[in-house]
Queue: 4 jobs
Job 1
Amino acid sequence: MPRLRLPSLPADLACQKLVELVTDYLEGALSRRDRKRFERHLAGCPHCPEYLAQMRATIDLTGRITPDDLTPQMRQDFIELFRRWQADDE
Amino acid sequence: MLRLAAGYVPSQAVAEEVVQDTWLAVLRGVSRFEGRSSVRTWLFRILVNRARTAGERERRAMAVPDPAAAVDPARFDPSGSWSLPPEHWVDLVDDRLIAQQMAGRVRSAIMDLPAQQREVVTLRDVEGLTSGEVCDVLDLTEANQRVLLHRGRSRLRQVLESEFGRP
């Protein structure tokens, strides 16, 4: 009896493809199967873990840009506004 | 907010006006706010709309064209493996002074991103909104939000890499 063959995935992900999937990976948006392929590649590649670390460092640095944009007065006004809005809502 | 607004308009002064204007709109509109989205989402939404309008009035020079690839294709061999691999510099970021300096560099690089990437990166990675909140603020699908985030973050990584010494 002929057996049904499932389409086989490429054995490995190319590095050039992996760098385009990094955000989907970090956002948890990859399918289980793609996530496994991604992690399998990382485990066997001498360079892609470095790339992933660089992306994480980039996100970390971006998060360190200081929130210098609200004056204390604005912040106070906003908190006040928010409390009033919450009170109205109840 | 000021930083987000500054991405649309040519000067700090105009950006400050936009933020002021937003607060006024917030105060006026608070009674009409229905509480469908979080206050934060609502506030950023008003800000983005106002800043876009102000930005159209005072069009600033276009930034760099949108690079399609996260990494220059010339850095891979024909099989798609690294031929010019990433170097190890992430540890340097542990140094507080270097991190401060590089955060400054990232800040200006964000300003040079195409508008939508700049919006998404600012809201997600600087202001710390969730992906759901960003989609609400900017009227994006989750998938589009991810594409913009990916391009923006990839570009910022390139900038850092060039600061740390690789092409």
Job 2
Amino acid sequence: MRLLLWLGVLLSVSCDGVITGARPQPGVLSPEAAPQPQPNPLPQPQPDPVQPEPKPIVTPTSRLRRLNPRELDASLAMLTGETHGHAAALLPNPAASPFDNVVEGQLPSAAWVEGVEQLANQVATETFADPARRAKVMPCTPTGNADLACLSQFIRSFGRQVLRRPLTDAEVTRFGSLHAQALQRGSIDTSLRLAMVRLLVDPEFHFRVELGSAVTNGVMTLTEFEVASRLAFALQGRAPPAWLLAKAEAGELHGTEALQVAARRLLDEPAGRAMVERFHALWLGYATLPNDAQLNERLFTETTALVRRVVFEQPGDYRRLFTSQETFVDAALASHYGLTAPATTGFGWAPYQATGRQGVLSHGAVLANGTKNGETSPTLRGLWIRRRLFCQEIPPPPPNVVMDLPPPMQGAAVCKKERLSAHSTNGSCAGCHHLMDPVGFGLERFDSTGKFRTAEPAFPQCSIDGQGELAGVGSFNGPAELASLMISSGALEPCVVKQVFRFAYGRTEQDEDEGWLAAVERSFTSSGRRFDELLVAMTTDEQFSKRRVEVTP
Amino acid sequence: MKHPLSRRFVLRGAAGAALSLPVLEAMSDNRALADAAPPKRFLLGYAGTSLGGSTGSIANTFVPTTEGANYDLKTALAPLAPVKNEVTVVTGLKIPWGTTSPAGGRELQFHYRSMAPLLTGTRSNLGAFTTPTVEHVASDLLGQRNFSPLVLRVQAASYDGSAQPGSGSTISYRMVNGRLSAVPPRFSPQGTFQALFGQLPTNGLTPEQAAEQAWLLANRKSVLDAMRSQYSSLLTRVSASDKQRLDDHLQEVRELEQRVAAIPPPQTATCFRPMDPGADPSIGGGQAIGSNGNITYSQNLGYSDEEQRALVMCDLVAMAITCDLTRSVSLQFSNVQCMMNMYSISGQLSDLHGLSHGSFGHRTEPDDTAAMAKGISWHMKHWARLLAKLAATKEGATSLLDNMGVCFVFEGGGGYDTDTNQAKGPHSTDAMAVLVSGGVGGLKRGHHLKATNLHPAQVLLTTLRALGATSNSLGEVSGEIPGLRGP
């Protein structure tokens, strides 16, 4: 019941016989003799199709984006050392689908604005009550209650971080204008605290305001401070660190080379690593996992390790995320998968050998997607693969279809293949379902935790042959072969680019974005398909420093 | 007494200019007139659970056997015993369904599709709402207060990142700028306390303490004034495509400023600043129940001490009504298709939704319906406590509850299950029930009323009419429930 996507109402159709099958054949790839940091041998690529005329590059639009609770908490942690995650506890938090920074979900509400005020007060009170945090935000020590110079200094330095740009003298004065009122019954600390609250409720903190330096023919050129914000939110999921603001202030944040240096430095920092990991957890659906806590933690460790290896530790062809011949497990997880435990105690890399597995599609974290009631749904799994890895949208079912539960068993139809047979035999269903069900069936021998099986757990008489098909591409059996097909189809790269775009822009791509996305994809492939280089390419491209300003919303 | 001011008109003023404060005199004239009729108020409670499952029967756990007065309380409703005379149970209700939504109805699929018909009387559009929910209709009817309406939620987080993201966390929809917009509820008890009572002076302070409190409030108002000013100023500088969005947020800032600036209600024996509830219980992690039946019972998974949160939120609702800060409230206890961990609440090894599907998660109950009854009774425990407060609080010669129209609705019924095509099950908008309380407009109290195959929105409509509404329909649903009003 967890994923409300579709399964059809079962018609009374019975299929003849149960298809049995042999164990899956080893994948196209031969296992490596020993783990080595070389890129894994990939299947023979298809010859390049004739390249169509490149689409025109149009500067993408960008709506006024609001910081989500996670971005707020990460920014506040950086600014004040506060780590309680107050924003997540106080502010409405649109759920992830898969990304949690989508503009559409950011509704104005009384709950939000009250949460903003409360957050500001809480952070300000805690910061000035804690000597360590106070020291972090104060550039000076007030000599007494009348030390306006120190108040101004604080506002200028802290305000610069909060508003993500330098303040004018007039603004510094304005943010300190409650000083006299504060001193009526308080001290300089009251005044400092009130100034901090005023900064933390400011719209330029909560919104990524882009006013630009110029607008020409409907395209706004962003200021260097605005570029700094874009880079930081895209690559670290939080406000720009002090060094990046300094570069913007020094006028050093323009031109591809300078931007690349900044982007790479952002990615190298722990916050950059964390952002890449979170992007993958959201994209591949394992930010929350459905099993018991210990298994969830192991699975999360496993997949995170592969992401780290492919993107940061052994940077190279990103497709190795899907073709890795080994996985990071401990003895318990190795046993779960039927692999030989790693040599080391604790977690280590264990080879897949001839188990029909390769890469992240074999991980329990990713295979958890597309399950319903603890059992895998071939339709949902297929749909998930289509949406997340192929960026294909499949039209919703007609309104007379009930998707809450798997099709009930009727008569002889007990096994999944029979229960879902209407999807393929009914012409009006098959049109869409042939894109989904056969993909899911090809993964059926791997349950919702990634464990291998040859029969349905509820019905041992229903053996699973694990045969699947990627319509128009080829047939496969198991995640290893699916990964190979996916890569050979060439569909992965454009979809990865789109998913990164969606994350970076907080919206889905429109037709007019195609030209630019194709250009970014060309950069990606020509850089050797390095994921970090994809992020750098997108965020340092001249289009990323601009914004198309729509005349009518 | 109706107040013809629309909130948006009042707060936008002329050309968005700042309004002089205080501006809510028109909203306070009721309080000033000693012999005026006490104000009427609406309260909606919601539970994200159906009444019964595919095993067991709601006839045993929920539906009273006796009709009329002196009905019997079954297990799910047992906590209502102290306020039984204040609760009318309307049973047998039905939201129709079809391959496409019939008027006031839903498509065949159950999940999320019953919400719009239940709360607006308008048919589901593949689960989407198209008209405002009942508490907004009531709010427009009953007059603007500081909170018009007050929209709250007890469940602290969704605990589940799937399904239709976010949509289960919100059951309130209103019109903004001619578009229907979801209203995210307040869910922080401390935040709600601050919003409702932050600017009420505490009773019994020394002059020194009172001066301190007044100064703190002045600081707060200055900050909000500055915040609004910053938004207004920025609005003049952003590009056209950003203006509407920023302006929508500016409206919320303005309204917050208005609320804080409003003359606080006079404190009386019944209306006073409640005790500060303290810091919110921390928000728990994701779902506790593995969908494959593996369960881990860390206290922190799928639970954020909703027991405490419910206590505080109900107290705040009671006092908000007592102080006439609001005349319409929506109190959502649990999310649609609720994944909240029930272990701390009722000792059950399941989330609330999972109780209806005994097939996963452990079951120590005799059947699904009995398991769900425990989940329902938790809601009823808190509902009874809230009703008791409203019944005990005097306003003039009558109690608050005497002049209220109150409805408690449930996400689903316990009859025909459209997902399984069985005679009973949780995916049902058949055999639904609504609990009605309050004495306004002749609402019947303490009865069991069978309203077989009538629409639950008709109960809401009857309540609205008891409150003085003249329209005979809510959304696409028309007609009162016979016998719910009158002698």
Job 3
Amino acid sequence: MKRTVKAALCICMIALLTGSVFAAGQREPEAQQVTFFHYFSGTLAGGIEELVTEFNQENPEYRLSHTPLDHEAFKTSIRVMLTGGNPPDLFSYWAGAQVQFLVDADRIAPIDDVFEMYELDTLFSDVVLQATEYDGEKYFLPLTQHFAAFFYNKEVFDQAGVTPPETWDEFLDVCEQLKNSGVTPIALGSRERWPAQFWLDYPLLRTAGPEYRAALMEGTASYTDPEVVRAFEMWKELVDKGYFVANANAYDWAEAATMVGTGEAGMTLMGSWFMQLDDEIGWEAGEDYDFFPFPEVDEDVPLAAVGPIDGVVLARDARMPDAAKQVLGELAAVGPQTTFNIGSGALAPNLNVSEDIYNVLQLKVKEYLDDVPHWAFNYDLATPPPVADVGLDAFARFMNQPDNYMQILADTEEGKVRALEEGDEL
Amino acid sequence: MDKKGVVVQFLALPFAVYMMVIIIPFFQSIYLSMTDWDGLSHFYNFVGLRNYLQVFVDPNFSKALIHNAIWVGIYLLFPTILGLLLAVMLDKNIRGAVIFKSIIYLPMIFSFVIVGMIWNFIYEPRLGILNLALEAAGFEHLTQAWLANPDTALVSVVVAAAWQHTGLCMILFLAGLQSVRTDLIEAAEIDGCRKRQVFFNVVLPQLKNTTIVVVSLTVINALKSFDIVYIMTRGGPFRSSEVLTTLMYREAFQNYRMGYGSAIANMLFLIVLVIIVIYFRTVMRKDES
């Protein structure tokens, strides 16, 4: 009896083993898993979920596994992972000074070969291509391009009898008329500080020009220069006249956007991610709201557009660098770029993406960006992070103490010098 | 196996875990505080005590330290005293005492994140219950953006934290009151002491050990507060509610100054250590005398 049991067990074992061998022989090659951490979450999620699903369906040889985190959690997590030597293969980041910091720290790897293999240089505009290159090498694959402008409530403008202004004087008139009609002209939610940055970016770009602004961002110009003082005085004029919503530092950008949506305020200077609130506010782009670029102030100064370009970088310590590079190449293609940018309010960096995916406002943004001669990253992406921290504090402080602007600028300059000195000592 | 061997075996694993998550990171943090590491680079330099020297000249550090001192002051004054008063009141067999105790203790079950969010709604400038209540009571001139005004932001955050902390103080004092000798109270009453005299001269001295625990916890909680500040103001507006923990986070994780952030963390540790040591020594000296 015992013998019979033993024999049966042996047969079972052999059957199991041979079966698994045959099964292994028939099994399809295992997909290579590429990990991707990013901050495209919440109201800024765009079409990331669809992008990943579609990518995995169309590229069965890879399995793109993505982890969305909120902005602040992302910043901390990615740094811990990078320094711990256990980073994701790919992660999202902000083009400009933030990517430069990672390049300087040798935490991300160049992807020139991806650009070469997939001929990516032909897919992007010059502005976007500039955002991909750091210290002469390509490090950044752009996924989305946003643009900051005035988004306004059409009904409120109609009721006040005003039209989008083209010059600064016209802009002041519009504000005055909105105020007279009982509407707060400008909503600003600077609780998180960054929404106020566009109020230095644009007045400075429109009066001192892109070159001076670049010098300020690099630290070679001073915050006490007459150019910066003038930009702050333009901003102050609006505050003094009561054109801004009261207690701007109490609200975040979405609350400010909602004020425009409800007609409590006329407009807000914000990035094109404003359009991602359509469902929450319950209105339609082009129908209920529209945008106009920051008005011209000095006609001799060339126009410049401001905004962030978000994208993906490859970790230096990536576990699957080759597969990750393949993924990067695929992410630059029309399909993924289309999927990600539908409904995000952004423009897809890939020039071959069909315009059919854009709403009427995005088409207007595209048209404007095609004509505008200069592009600049917004303040916190254009200047080194420790300096940006000083500047962002200054903007929030200005909204609270506008009369103190000269002291604020002096303090900002002092903080900038200290931050840069400490950076040099590293 | 002898008894000692068993003890060692049982302690080995927890000790190893403690070493890994507390002791080693603690010494690592001391080492990092003496470097100029940006938190990302592969290489960094040993800078000795430079970060610590910088702490003393950094206006943001002194500002945050003052804010922490204000926090400790308010925390010691209100939740502690209020907790004691509530405990004394609810220790008696009054009707509904259990319900009151539960209500007052309820905030303790929430995390600071939830508390912060609740109070964010309360402080909301247009629709917040605080401003609406002030308006309804005819104090319209007092309404303001509590968290956006640099003059009120810090106190507003501390009040929110104190709301939660009061429940803890009350529970601890209630536990302490259980061990108060009632025969001494009765003797004092027979001797003709007034209620106030009984409380200050008989009850309070017997609550000394509980008070030590409450004060220590209060000081430590006040100095280590981070989450509620982060949720409510992130240290703003423009650093007006910045405390040492948020400054440490800002420097280490936002400004890429991990070395300096570590120095701030260690300074905070030293401050807590000094306060607690002074406090305990004072209490013990009084005990001996």
Job 4
Amino acid sequence: MAKTEPNRTPLVEFSADKMKELVRNFTPEKITAFLDVTDLNADTQSPKLNKMADWATTFGCASVCVNPVEADKLPALLKGTNVKECYVIDFPLGKMDIEMKAVLATHTVKKSRELRGEGKGFIDLDMVINVGRFKKDPEYTLEEINAICDAADGEHVKVIVRSAELTEKELYKVSEIVASSRAHFIKNSTGMDGYGAMPDHIRIMREVVGNSMGVKAAGGISDAMTAMRLIYAGAPEESLQTPELFRLGTSKPLTIITSMGWLRHNTDDWLDAGIIPCTICPFHHTGKLRVEIREASNRRCQNCKFKEYRKHKEF
Amino acid sequence: MKAIKGGYFGRLLRVNLDDFTFNSEEIPEKLLIDFIGGRGLGSKILFDELPANAEPLGPENKLIFATGPLTGINAPTTSRFAVVAKSPLTGTIGGCSSGGHFGIDLKSTGYDVLVVEGIAKIPCYICIIDNNVEIRDASGLWGKNTHETTDALLSETDSKAGIACIGPSGENEQLIAAIMNEKNHAAGRGGLGAVMGSKKLKAVVVSGNNKTPVGDKDIVDRAIKQWRIFVGEAPLTKDVLKEYGTPALVNTINHDGSFPSYNFQEGVFNDAESLSGETFKELYFVKRQPCAGCPIACARLTATPEREGKGPEFETIWSFGASCGVNDLEKIIHANYNCNEYGFDTISAGNTVACAMEMSEKGYFPEPVMQQIREDIGRDLKFGDAGAIVKLSELIGKNEGFGKELGLGSSRLAEKYGHPEVAMHVKGLELPAYDPRGFHGMSLTLATNNRGGCHLRSYLVSTEALSTPFPINRFEKKGKAGLAKLYQDLTTTIDSMVACLFTSFALNPDLYAKLVGTVMGIEMDGNDLLKTGERIWTIERLFNLREGKSRKDDTLPDRVLNQPFTSGLSKGYKIEFDELLDEYYHVRGWNNEGVPEKEKLEELDLV
């Protein structure tokens, strides 16, 4: 199957002129509205939560994304603002059964609403699908997504598909499943997978889910250049450039905001000098991948016109 | 009606050492708006007041100490000040930025700028406490090192004063002499300590209680808070520099195969681990000693079993370390202490010793010189001789033996003995620790720098090596001319406001403009700020053109241009320099000889 995959080139072939035009239309404020300020580490404590809430409210980010346990603190920190709370469900492996996932979602929503006291509409739930089950039984995935959507009681659900563990064909398939579900967003990664957000995958996800569902890119996004490539891939049209239809999950919101300020000066020069194809190509990132995906990726690299970059891994 | 609402007292103190007179002058608002302060204002004053081809160590040269609109407002890293004069080492415009707390103290006297003119008949020092200005006899201090001088003056004047002084190196007008403040902070590059020495000015003492006025305080406080958030959280300023100081760069630059070793003959130093930030921290770190009000806190006190002091910084570890083939960090620390105490530039000194090592090994010195070296260090001079760097740095400081020759800097040393190709410099200023063969954008910024081969006027390493704000392809030439200009123009404004270059790891042009604009109470965005930076850069260029510099001086050593590395991760890459330089002149609006076009000068209001 892999041998017949189209050898479509990754983001580096995107139109330079369009990319430059896109950047020129962005400001630090505009990109900030897409950001889910994230910390999903095991040792996160209150001072960091306070900081994240301060950044999100000071700069106008979309949400603060944390583990569900923080629902006893975060709502109070964000009360009275427009910043949403975002909780991950069954993170990072997605290996709970459907009922347990739903219970966790229900519990988290209830707890948050009680503390915030501002009614519905202030919560996002980023659920992780069971990738193993998906590979054998895609219908299982649809069932689990819809179960979480029901449990969310109207709050937005984003579906993390862990694209680093999927072949391209599987990514298309899972995107179709998400598109047919009651979820609001598809999201590529937990940020703890084999690799993070790759423009190529984001482009496929947008292509499949269409323009009425949200796409969230996450994993390794720490500067505006990376962010803009993902926006180009996932929200190239102005109508898609809203927090309802596009998000960026990041633990480095400040470096994205400040580097956006850099990118707006000498945009052409930054983009001309910043092209390092392999770093933005999913097929380059093979180290932590399963054997069959690694082999498929290597085949792509062998035929890639940018393979010289891969040879000189230290750019 | 005044346009500027804050950031300045609007006063310049002019001291004439010929006759020990001084007077206070009002600084025109237009100068402050067009040139900001610090380096920019100093460059403008020097351009306007210094005749062409003035002798740098003669009475005509002026030594300008300048603060900026951010000095004294308690924003992160803004305790710095600028020194500007014609450089005796390069013959170009010379300028430095230094930390510590001297900048705040100078501002607190109620003067924004101090201009020193003429030559005193006896050693003296200038003491400004609040508005009281005195020029005092320093005969008793002449000959003392920078630490002894500072201690004596603190006890004689105000124990909390800011003190900038020279050591024996400056007194002897060595071309690599530095001006030292708070003992270990240096206005190091270009030999401005020699200018101070030529004026018989041993020190400047400043102290006061004047508070820098600001525009709308609430808006200024909000802008400062934003600076604090960004500087406090950026990876390089929050973690790396705080944890390891600048020596953190050793492993990174060496890994990239662009850590110039053995006088730029190689790009990888095999013993880099012995010089790394981790080793430095483990063995010699005592505690952090930041500049006043700085949250980054990269500066650190150190100690060896024999001595204690401050530093060294990354550049010094490299110049006396890898560049000299030395892997003994303790000896490098001692050489650094010597530089601080005698008062001379560690980068130029280490580079010049490396140059001498190569010349010695290749037999380029005549026998009398070899004999002098044997007399000084007890053996022939070779790469890797750790003992020699300590002894030679001491001899430079004392201006004795072979140290006297080293005090000339590498360019003059190599030229004197018929092998100019061995000196690794641009315009006479020794190159820093980033080999352009591995950082092609840096090749341009080093070659076109107005003060010579220095990294601090356009730190493209930030993006080419440290992925800040973005990772870019370090061997790519596309876009590099424009980025060199962007970094040069922005850094010029950072030196003019006056803040630390390291804030550029966390901020961007718009955030700088926002704070400067709110402090001054005027509208300013990133583009306005960069335009001002371009104006300052261009007037410095005009200064250098007037001094006879031209395209031929915007170049790199032949070794760097034509001998690619044969090992390491920068192996085989050759810089396409002429193309880069042509493109650079084009984006600057200069002609093919590097002369600004009339339209550009009109655009910058410099006609």
